[in-house]
Amino acid sequence: MKKIGNQTIKFDNPPSILDAACIVGPKEADGPLAKYFDKCLDDEFWGEKTWEKAESKIIRETVNILFSKSGISNKDIDYCFAGDLLNQCISSSFGLRDSNIPYFGIFGACSTFVEAISLASVFIESGAGTNALCAASSHFCSAEKQFRFPLELGNQRPPSAQWTVTGSGATIISKEGKGPYITHATPGKIVDMGIKDANSMGAAMAPAALDTLLAHFNDTGRNPSYYDAIITGDLGHIGKEILIDLAITKGYNIKSNYNDCGVLIFDKETQDVHSGGSGCACCASVFSGYLLDCLRKKKYKKILLMATGALMNSTTSQQGESIPGIAHAISIEI
Questions:
Q1: 135: buried, middle or exposed (CB in 10 Å: 19+, 13-18, 0-12)?
Q2: How many CB atoms lie within 10 A of CB 155?
Q3: What domains are defined for the chain?
Q4: pLDDT at 150
Q5: Closest to 309 (Cα-Cα) out of 330, 326, 322
Q6: At what angle do helices 140-147 and 51-70 cross, to 10 degrees?
Q7: Contact between residue 286 and residue 261 where contact means Cβ atoms under 8 Å apart
Q8: Could you tell me the pTM of the whole model?
Q9: Closest among 140, 104, 93, 131 to 16, alpha carbons compared
Q10: What pLDDT sits at residue 21?
């Protein structure tokens, strides 16, 4: 393992993705990627009394499905890296409190899943362990209640708003395995362009995505054509177009092989999601289901997965603060 350039880590013995699992909610189940998810719910509560309890159940059961699919048990996991959107990451900590695994609760907003994989890869490559669990979750109802307005108010959402994905994704990063492999990780820097609208997350996060994208290309000497697909996590339709335009100003045309998980997970024409999907589960579920399937079938052999996050909360919004953005990238290759 070594650092190359200003902020990229190159793994000399790339950790392997052993397996992944994902659960999604009813709206995601009606989207174009439904067949790639391990379980699709027909009720946001999933038998629980609150949305928060439901989200904890979703991440817990996603991890259980992953253990069953992979043949790996909690006793085989050296570390867990997990996070979500709720205050103090309660969905992850309550959902995984009985896992009996050394636990790192992390927060990168919607970038949490790729942040988890980046940190886990460093641990595994260093020899500190053999297997690491990475997981992230979000829930539309709990996120709306915390960050914007209680659903009971029936507030009208502007066209720039995104739909927080209800669901969870989890994967095991291992010293062993036949790939796909994590070959590089480019941690992002905080970028704040002064946007204050909590209903315009794509615009707030796109500059951070550009910053990390440029850092990755500069550090590795690669260009967009190296990858079969460049996938951001949570920019949605508006943020996606902004990133394409910003990249062109820096000399990179990514339009032909670029897409966003928030665009992929919903059908904009038939589902009322405005600018697309967001939330920790957006990137986590799309990767753990659809993208991993593409890699295994060799539709894609090289992916740059770059999850974006808005590092704000309801308090900062109420105090008139702007929204800092972050983007973390990993290179996944077979």
A1: buried
A2: 13
A3: 2-7+9-13+15-174 (3.40.47.40), 181-333 (3.40.47.40)
A4: 67
A5: 326
A6: 140
A7: yes
A8: 0.95
A9: 131
A10: 98
pLDDT score, position 1:
67
- For residue 333, is pLDDT > 70? yes
Q: CA nearest 284: which of 21, 46, 11?
A: 21
**What single letter denotes the amino acid at residue 119?**
L
Please state the three-class secondary structure of the chain as a single string. CEEECCCEEECCCCCEEEEEEEEECHHHHCCCCHHHCCEECCCCCCCCCCHHHHHHHHHHHHHHHHHHHHCCCHHHCCEEEEECCCHHHHHHHHHCCCCCCCEEECCECECHHHHHHHHHHHHHHHCCCCEEEEEEEECHHHHHHHHCCCHHHCCCCCCCCCEECCEEEEEEEECCCCCCEEEEEECCCCECCCCCCCCCHHHHHHHHHHHHHHHHHHHHCCCHHHCCEEEECCCHHHHHHHHHHHHHHCCCCCHHHEEEHHHHCCCCCCCCCCCCEECHHHHHHHHHHHHHHHHHCCCCCEEEEEEEEECCCHHHHHCCCCCCEEEEEEEEEC
Q: Is residue 226 within 8 Å of residue 251, measured between CB atoms?
A: no
What is the percent of the chain with per-residue pLDDT over 70, rounded to a whole number?
96
Cα–Cα distance for residue pair 39/24, rounded to 1 Å: 7
Whether residue 258 contacts residue 248, with contact meaning beta carbons closer than 8 Å, is answered with no
Banded model confidence at residue 162, pLDDT cuts 50, 70, 90: confident
pLDDT digits (tens, 9 = 90+) for 139-154: 987 777 666 666 665 6
- The whole-number pLDDT of residue 117 equals 98
Distance CA(4)–CA(7), nearest Å, equals 7
Which amino acid makes up residue 45?
F
The tens digit of pLDDT for each residue in 62-84 reads 999 999 999 999 999 999 999 99
Distance CA 138, CA 44 (A): 11
